[in-house]
């Protein structure tokens, strides 16, 4: 059986591929917290010992560009599900140990009957433009210039979250919001909704807490320190420029 073996939900076992890349697939499935993915691949945790002599642990992010797009998507799916399994072990109502539901992907409480499904945390990320310029921010302790992003709060629409996050982090107002694309974000369990917006008013200033710097950059003079190519932030920037 084709299997993905993880040491923890964000690190998996891999081995050298014939083409010089990485091969995260193994012939058998072993370990705990087993999950069957949409394409039939099995994912499970192998926390003790090396599963095969040539296996080595690699962080999930280190495999981008070294595996196919289809494999990359499966790795994210596996990571999210294994994180959910390891974090969802007791009922939040009565503290009873949960059991796998026999009919669907859920954890069931044998005491009170509660059902608990994989959790997704919605987040928004926005490319803000002003003519030929784009607004980028540098997070405190960050490593690159990025787009304004944040989690959706209770009672908010995606659009309301966009406006609030931009206002809180940069102090400006935006208009003409347009949805562009989304991306699963298994770090550990988010779904990123990407938007474009236009500058409306205000002076861009960092909040001084989460954000260290904000700056307008011209389309023809973007900084070298941009988000990684596999990220939705990079794709939104590429689409714009």
What does this structure look like?
This protein folds into 3 domains: 85 residues, no CATH class; 30 residues, no CATH class; 120 residues, Nucleoside Triphosphate Pyrophosphohydrolase, CATH 3.90.79. Helices cover 17% and strands 38% of the residues. The strands form 3 sheets. Strands 1, 2, 3, 4, 5, 6 and 7 form a 7-stranded mixed beta sheet that branches. Strands 11, 12, 13, 14, 15, 16 and 17 form a 7-stranded mixed beta sheet that branches. The chain has 3 helices and 17 strands. The chain is of the alpha+beta class and 241 residues long.
Tags for this model:
alpha+beta; Nucleoside Triphosphate Pyrophosphohydrolase; 241 residues; 7-stranded mixed beta sheet; 3 domains
Question: Summed up, what is this model?
Answer:
The chain is α+β, with helices and mostly antiparallel strands and about 240 residues long. The chain has three helices and 17 strands.
Count helical runs: 3
User: How many runs of DSSP E, i.e. beta strands?
Assistant: 17
Please indicate the count of domains.
3
Mean pLDDT: 93
Instruction: Using the CA coordinates, give the radius of gyration.
Output: 21 Å
Largest sheet descriptor: 7 strands, mixed
Order of H and E elements: EEEEEEEHEEEEEEEHEEEH
Helix vs. strand class: alpha+beta
β-sheet strand percentage: 35-45%
Please give the alpha-carbon distance between the first and last residues. 44 Å
The CATH homologous superfamily of the largest domain is termed: Nucleoside Triphosphate Pyrophosphohydrolase
CATH architecture of the largest domain: Alpha-Beta Complex
Percentage of residues assigned to helices: 10-25%
Shape: globular
Please report the first level of CATH classification, the CATH class of the largest domain: Alpha Beta
| Topology-level CATH name of the largest domain | Nucleoside Triphosphate Pyrophosphohydrolase
Low-pLDDT windows of residues? none
